[in-house]
Every structure is written in C-alpha cells, then in structure tokens.
Target: Homocysteine S-methyltransferase 2
Amino acid sequence: MGLKSESTFLGDFLRQCGGYAVIDGGLATELERHGADLNDPLWSAKCLVSSPHLIRRVHLDYLEAGANIIISSSYQATLQGFEAKGISREEGEALLRRSVEIACEARNIYNDRASKGSWDDFDDGTGLKRNPVLVAASVGSYGAYLADGSEYSGIYGDAITVKTLKDFHRRRVQVLADSGADLIAFETTPNKIEAQAYAEILEEEAINVPVWFSFSSKDGINVASGDSIAECSSIVDSCKQVVGIGINCTSPRYIQGLIQSIRKVTSKPILVYPNNGETYDGVKKEWVASRGVVEEDFVSYVDKWCDAGASLVGGCCRTTPNTIRAISKVLTRRSHSV
Ligand SMILES: [Zn+2]
Model:
C-alpha cells in the first residue's frame, strides 16, 4: 500500500461504513468468559498456542454483533514473552502471523455466511448485506509484556528509554506489518516515550501499512503516566502512517474530555474503545468492579463521544458482543442521519 492511499485509508473506509465504524469489544476478557484461563504472562496470546478455535469464535461473535474492525490476539504476544516460555524466535514469529490469520479466517467465515444470506435480518435498509471489515494487528505496550498492569501506570522506571523500547518492539512491528493485516493497532499506550519509540520505528523501518494509536488514561486529562495527551497525540499525528488516534481501555466517564483534547491537535479520525469502567488490579490480576458502568450506561455515552469528534467506537476489557451490538445500533442510526 502506497503512502498516498494511507492518507485516505481510514476516511475511505469510514465512508464505506456510512460515516461511523464499529470496533470490536474486549478480546481477552471475552476469551475468559468462554472459560479460557489467561492467568499467564502471555494473557490472551496463551490461546494462540492452546485454543486458536476459541479466538476465532470470539472474533466471529464480534463480527456478528456488527464490528467493522476486529483486533488480533497479539496484544500480549511478544517474541520476548514467547522466548521466556521456551518458544523459539521462528515459532514466535509464526504465532504472531497466526494471530492475524485467525482474524482473517473469522472474516472469511463471516463473509461467506453473509453472502449465503443466512442472516436475513442483517439488511439494515441500505441494501448492504454485510459490513465491510478490517483486520487490525494488535501491538500491546511494553507494560503489557511486563504483565503487572503497568500499561495502566505508564511507569517503566529509569532504565527504560526510547532506545530500549525500540529494541523491544522493532521485530514484532516488522512481522505484523508483513502479516497481511489491514492495519496495525498500537493499543493501551501509557506514556510519551513509548509513543516516541513506535513513531521512530515506523520511520526507520519505513513501515508501509496504516497504523492507529490509542492511549490509556486514568484521569481523563493525561495519558496513564501523566504525560500530556495533546503532546502524545501530536507526536504520532506527524507520522505519515498514522490514520487514526484515540483512547482504549479507559473508563467511559473520561472519554469525552480526552476526545476534545485530541481533536485540538489532529484532523485525523478519532477512535475510542473504552473498558467498562472497572479497574485492573495488577497484583491480584483481577478487575475490580467498584466503579464499573453497566451496559446501558456505556451505550448512552456513544452519541456524546461522536458529537465530540469520534468516528470509530468499540469496547475494550470487560465489554462483550452485547456491548458491541448496542454500539452498532447507535452508529447505524447516526450513519443514516449523516
Ligand atoms: Zn482493555
């Protein structure tokens, strides 16, 4: 894909979707809901080895719920994490590619079913029998690899620099760029040095697939580490490969203000896929429900996020196909009134 097409890539896709696109919901937490035990440093990537059929099934559930973009199971799949498990470099790279293949298989099954017309209720009145679908290859942050919840603190310690982060991420980004995915999704980025590291890799490796960046926040003002969301967004906005910027795995109640801050520094599409408002306890390795929002509340935010400037909306941890179905309804209604 040439660079010129990258500049219109997401805009063209959004037009095809009617103005708004639906991102899928939590992958790892949905795998757990289906019985997978992800208490492991590889988290959802553990299923790449043990139960790829379950990953495909969850992707398919999200497509059937209306998702236009499904995100691969490579979030916590790192060559370093695989090596710690005795998985060789070559096998690790094959597993990264496999995560994208599984998502593509789910898309094929979905397209096939749709073309056979087995979902009669799917025609939304536009004559479109099925949703256009992109596969995004997930890249989780260095904090995700640490598997201690530090993608929500962004505090990596003094020993971690832009250089060490580049060394950490470079090969995985190259492999995923060549995996056949439509785009790369840098997810849950918690600080400025990691945004900088990714941006430099994109430039140095002349990565030629579109990418999006999403940051995590725990106060609705800054990214998780306390670095300015405007500054982080500006850094990535200047990369030619970047087709969208946004927020994921952050409480719904913080999203609107963050969209407004991002909008001030970019004209690129804004994407949001919040979690359900619970917080992750990295020590106990569990989600704490205290301030979670119920599904109806989550969905009641969607119009506000779109009014503030978001055009891609989905869910992150602890959201489900039901959440995505409800988001899809809101966005379909908005698309028809554009
Ligand atoms: Zn999440």
